[in-house]
């Protein structure tokens, strides 16, 4: 995934750290073997090269991610789209480095073979149909899924108190050894906005935006990079869904983010460019959570 993983934990008695580390690496390798955009021999890589009309029976992890990705794609009206690998590749964010922006013609060619509406998926059989030339890119959701998967792996080892991170996407379970929750500072890219610290108690957070990696997020609807979203954080019970929604909200206009996050009752903090400065927006659900935490019993 081009990043690192880190886990802080309060281990149960007899916890074998070396065995846990090996299990974590094996679990991540299994996920990458299924969904890596950079590995030609991954299941995703083989799907992207498949002939038009070919059906693939997906492994369980891949299937879970595709189902969630298609649901968020539909609910966000395509602001999140798992089927824009051709556009991602055209802008040089895929496995092949490109030293120039794509031409208008190249963008239109990539858009012509992209889009989640071209996918056919059968949940009961876990079969996915290649429409022809379509390329999946699960970068906006697979990292979150991997965080959830490692959290579940630790729970299976009777380790229920941990903070799991992959590339800035986090899940907090249980409590720290000192009895505090796992405190996390949301990414704040500008001094115009006050820092915000949240307690990840049985919660996940994912952040998308451009202040770290530049304009790397592609709007699936236009095929162009997004230039207004500095950092959008979503708090959710699932890191996978937080990841996908953060990607969607980093594409949408501020007004559209406000409407959709409010409709979906999601915990969102968005920092966007506004003229020569920046503006912060906190969704009603997150504002209510903050107010509840700030209440002091009489």
UniProtKB/TrEMBL annotation:
This is FAD:protein FMN transferase. GO terms for molecular function: metal ion binding; transferase activity. Its EC number is 2.7.1.180. PANTHER family: FAD:PROTEIN FMN TRANSFERASE, THIAMINE BIOSYNTHESIS LIPOPROTEIN APBE. Its cofactor is Mg(2+); Mn(2+). Magnesium. Can also use manganese. It catalyses: L-threonyl-[protein] + FAD = FMN-L-threonyl-[protein] + AMP + H(+). It comes from Novosphingobium resinovorum. Mg(2+) binds at residues 140, 243, 247.
């Amino acid at each position: 995934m081009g990043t690192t993983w880190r886990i802080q934990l309060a281990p149960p008695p007899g916890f074998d750290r070396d065995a846990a580390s090996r299990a974590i690496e094996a679990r991540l390798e299994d996920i990458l073997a299924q969904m890596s955009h950079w590995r030609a021999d991954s299941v995703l890589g083989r799907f992207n090269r498949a002939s038009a009309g070919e059906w693939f029976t997906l492994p369980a992890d891949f299937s879970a991610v595709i189902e969630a990705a298609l649901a968020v794609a539909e609910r966000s009206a395509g602001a999140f789209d798992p089927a824009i690998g051709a556009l991602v590749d055209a802008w040089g964010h895929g496995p092949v480095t490109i030293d120039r922006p794509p031409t208008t013609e190249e963008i239109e060619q990539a858009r012509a073979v992209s889009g989640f509406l071209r996918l056919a998926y059968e949940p009961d059989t876990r079969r996915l149909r290649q429409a022809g030339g379509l390329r999946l890119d699960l970068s906006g959701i697979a990292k979150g899924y991997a965080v959830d998967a490692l959290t579940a792996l630790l729970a299976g080892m009777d380790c229920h108190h941990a903070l799991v991170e992959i590339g800035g996407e986090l899940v907090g379970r249980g409590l720290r050894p000192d009895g505090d929750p796992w405190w996390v500072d949301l990414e704040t890219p500008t001094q115009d906005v006050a820092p915000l610290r949240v307690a990840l108690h049985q919660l996940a957070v994912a952040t998308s935006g451009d202040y770290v990696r530049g304009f790397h997020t592609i709007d699936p609807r236009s095929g162009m990079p997004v230039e207004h979203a500095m950092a959008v954080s979503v708090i959710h019970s699932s890191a996978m869904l937080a990841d996908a929604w953060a990607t969607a909200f980093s594409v949408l206009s501020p007004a559209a983010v406000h409407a959709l996050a409010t409709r979906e009752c999601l915990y969102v903090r968005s920092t966007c460019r506004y003229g020569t400065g920046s503006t912060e927006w906190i969704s009603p659900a997150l504002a209510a959570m903050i107010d509840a935490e700030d209440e002091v019993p009489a």
